Amino acid sequence: MTESPSNPTLDQLLARCALADRAAFAALYAATSAKLFAVVLRILKNQELAEDALQDVYIKIWHSAADHHAGKGAVMTWMTSIARYRAIDMLRRARSGIKVSTGDVDTVDAQQSPGGGPAELAMQQADNSRLSACLDELDPPRRACLVLAYCDGYTHDELSVKLGSPVGTIKSWIRRGLQALKACLGGEDD
Amino acid sequence: MTEQLTPSQREQAAEYVLGTLQGAQREAFEQALADNADLYGEVVAWEARLAGLSDSIGPVAPPPHVWRAIDKAISMPVDAPKAGWWQSLALWRSLAAAALLALIVVGVPTLLQSPPAPEVPPVYSLVLRDSTQQPLWMIVCDWRTHQFTVNRVAAGAPDTGKSHELWLVRRGDAAPLSLGLLKGDELRGVLPDNANWRGTKALAVSLEPVGGSPTGVPTGPVLYVAPTPI
Questions:
Q1: What secondary structure letter does DSSP report for B166?
Q2: What is the DSSP letter of A17?
Q3: Residue A129 parent element (H or E)
């Protein structure tokens, strides 16, 4: 997988997918699937389920490409959200049948991350450092709750076990953590 | 559209994105999302806020059979001919090699009237733009009569020996339908009988030989795309 500034942006590829351009879809997959697979694998912690999830996700992206517009956010964020929601749904459904590990996941092989042109990347990095700074301002347990819930799909109950605190406390940490994050990132107060 | 969200709805939106909204609450929230634009906007805002959290997750290449399964799944039989440019990997490669991809730009739909879900606005407009957001053509679509009017805003003439052809891209995998050649300052037309705006994904302009595509489906590169807002 190579990335060069002359490559079409994800927006352009998605626009072509809306035209049922399967070559553009193949290119979109090549540019983004490693990221989305990592996201669903991290949540599901099961190779087979993650592959199923990824398949569902891209089929949905293909059929929804024409529905994406600026009001739905950046393309990568939109696609990542589709992937996360699918993985979370599968995780909840699979919970009764499959033992989902609540242990830590090993750091996966890091390759160069794809995702848009230089300007898009720079923008993301700027946002990320801001998010990182805001996360650092949170008390460690609140920060852990948000990261484990977002990246690993932990439920309130699982967080309670993992962090050794009552569910009520977990819920409060999450609620206040989210509020603090929003305020720090510049969202308007409710 | 303008109803205020309650604090509880805002909390639910945040926890929906985080993933901790569960069970019946999650399902009910997803139902509510479908017809509450404010709630949807709140979700999109949280998705943007939290997106950076997944950046710490290093990429993992999926095994090749996943792509094969996806490719097969989207190749289900359709009522379209199989050999159009929009399906041709070989053409993609040649396009990439020729660096023609730089020509592709994204159209941004501009609504004259916002389309509330239950009612379709009788008339709406689309703007085909170039990569600098310069409007090239403006298209006004009449929902009731199936008529459309294309007005040239700032579009230049195509290269010598070429024509700009306007296409209606339908939902599903059906082949695009030609709406005519874009020449002069105005094109008026009516949708073909087998098309309607509701079944339309986007309008697109491709570069074709003079006089338009010889095959009835697009043969040249897609230059501009404007998704329909419905």
A1: E
A2: H
A3: helix A118-137
**Nearest residue of chain A to residue B51 (CA atoms):** A77
Taking CA–CA distances from B27, the nearest residue in chain A reads A89
Q: Cβ–Cβ of A12/B106 closer than 8 Å? A: yes
A167 touches chain B (CB under 8 A): no
Q: Where are the domains of chain A?
A: 7-99, 117-190
Q: Which domain holds residue B213?
A: 80-227
- Architecture per CATH, domain A7-99, reads as Orthogonal Bundle (1.10)
Does A173 touch chain B if contact means CB atoms closer than 8 Å? no
Six token digits for residue A60: 């949905």
Q: Cβ of B169 and A19 within 8 Å?
A: yes
Residue in A closest to B37 by C-alpha: A71
Architecture of domain A117-190: Orthogonal Bundle (1.10)
pLDDT at position A97: 55
Q: What is the pLDDT of residues A142-187, one digit of tens each?
A: 999 999 999 999 999 999 999 999 999 999 999 999 999 999 998 5
* B33 and B87 assigned to the same domain: no
